[in-house]
Amino acid sequence: MRVIRAVATLVVVTPSMLALQGCNPHQYDSVPSVSNAKRSEIVGVWRCVEGTEVVLNVDGSAAVAHLDGQEFDFDDGWRMSGIGTWRLTDAKSGWGNGQHISVRVTQRMSWEERHDTEPGGRVPADARRPAPKTYTWTLEMQRGAKGLRLFFLFGDPDSRSYYYLEKERTEHGSSPSASRR
Hints:
This protein has 181 residues and is mostly beta strands. The protein has one domain (32-180). The chain is 13% helix and 36% strand. It is built from two helices and eight strands. Strands 1-2-3-4-5-6-7-8 form an eight-stranded antiparallel beta barrel. The N and C termini lie far apart (78 Å). Mean pLDDT is 77; it is low at 6-22 and 174-181.
């Protein structure tokens, strides 16, 4: 009887364990969120790699330079520059439970192909698509030792790959006024 139970356990448990090995262990991790951000903390210049810049102005206008698409749009390999608007919202959007920043480019000024997605430095030909003429990012926020950071998920959102933007600092440690741009 004990042998039959052991064999039955192996027959049921082994396939289940093999199926779980293909799952992303971070798929169900919660996404960091902030619920007490103030507009004054968000206004400014935010940067990432390869010249990415997001300028969020006091008047609600925005400018982006070399910003990649979020979630599955990242896989298309485009980077956009343009102008538009931004707003801080408590509405449920994005992946976190807190506040979000909606950045909408209403006028694309230019776009380029990202060059880091294959060993040869190009996006696969079948995945290449131009950036859309308008686009909206939903930015999440995270507060940590370095202060507030903005981010969005890129690629498959279940993989929990974060694209962080950090605020530009002046010599005195405070953020510059984005209205100077």
